[in-house]
Amino acid sequence: MLRLLIVTLAVCATICAAAQTRNSPMEAIAHLTGPPQSDNTQVKGNVTFIQNDCGQSVHVRIQLENVMQGKHGFHIHEKGDLSNGCTSLGGHYNPDKVDHGAPHHEVRHVGDLGNIEVNASRIIDITYTDSVISLSGKRTIIGRSVVLHELEDDLGLGNHTDSKKTGNAGGRIACGVIGIKSDVDEWPCRGGGADALRQSMSIVSIVVALIIARGL
Ligand SMILES: *[C@@H]1O[C@H](CO)[C@@H](O)[C@H](O)[C@H]1NC(C)=O
Ligand SMILES: *[C@@H]1O[C@H](CO)[C@@H](O)[C@H](O)[C@H]1NC(C)=O
Ligand SMILES: *[C@@H]1O[C@H](CO)[C@@H](O)[C@H](O)[C@H]1NC(C)=O
Ligand SMILES: [Cu+2]
Ligand SMILES: [Zn+2]
User: Fold this and answer.
1) Residue with CA nearest ligand 1 atom 14
2) How confident is the model at residue 175 (pLDDT cuts 50, 70, 90)?
3) Which residue intervals define the domain Superoxide dismutase copper/zinc binding in the entry (predicted)?
4) Domain map (residue ranges) of the chain
5) Confidence band (pLDDT; 50, 70, 90) for 210?
6) Rounded distance, CA 170 to CA 140, Å?
7) Is the confidence at residue 8, as pLDDT, over 90?
8) Above 90 in pLDDT, residue 115?
């Protein structure tokens, strides 16, 4: 009986450890294009997202060209539906139904990534980290979209009526749907996924072990 108990606990420990180890980061990509601008050029490029494990921050790299110099609102929008170009992607991804804000604000839409500032080269290549968006879990941004706006996002601080909804960032000059890029078989934390199963199995084995121990 004691041997069985030890074996059970060992199995549990192995499963628990397996649930905490990831071999490679989760990676996603969106390819962006947009409608012709006033000078007939189109914004193009990509945005990549890397998250090393569920619950961790996401590293965002934005590589775009043909963007007009200046600040442009940059958000995750709720839908991945391009049937009407950038206009059918819905509003800012906002599962908490709160006001629009800046990335560093306590109150913000999940999708509020602030502004990007483009210099005279009209090319941008920047990387930053956000701790609110996620590639995993119930609120994954996979299947949603990125949208670049014509104007500066006022971060909810302006006095326009749309300030607390959209940041009054104007039209949509480029967009793309966020898809899986990395070679990862299992995406953890997708509500009730493999992780939850592993966890409940671990709990079951502990309970079984305790019952056996009592019976000794
Ligand atoms: C993303 O865009 C940059 C700049 O245009 C390009 O060099 C890079 O190859 C692109 N990456 C992918 C995966 O398409
Ligand atoms: C303009 O931005 C690009 C891309 O982010 C950067 O490589 C370049 O050095 C910048 N140019 C100036 C003059 O700051
Ligand atoms: C807010 O409105 C006032 C009066 O209409 C205007 O003078 C001011 O520039 C506006 N501020 C911002 C940040 O838009
Ligand atoms: Cu937007
Ligand atoms: Zn917003």
Assistant:
1) 46
2) very high
3) 43-178
4) 1-22+188-216, 25-185
5) low
6) 26
7) no
8) yes
Per-residue pLDDT at 193: 46
Ligand 2 near 123 CB (within 6 A):
yes
What's the CATH architecture for 25-185? Sandwich (2.60)
Give the sign of the dihedral formed by CA 89, CA 94, CA 98, CA 103.
negative
pLDDT of 76 above 90: yes
Pocket, ligand 1, Cβ cutoff 6 A: 29, 45-46, 63
More reliable by pLDDT, 128 or 205? 128
> And the tokens for 129?
């980290």
Could you confirm whether 100 is annotated as catalytic?
yes
Active-site annotation holder among 72, 92, 108, 144: 92
- Among residues 126, 128, 145, the alpha carbon closest in space to that of 33 is found at 145
Token digits for 79?
């839908």
What is the distance between the alpha carbons of residues 196 and 44, in angstroms, rounded to a whole number?
Answer: 39
CA–CA separation, 61 and 25 (whole Å): 15
Write down the pTM of the prediction.
0.81
| CA 207–ligand 2 middle distance (angstroms) | 59
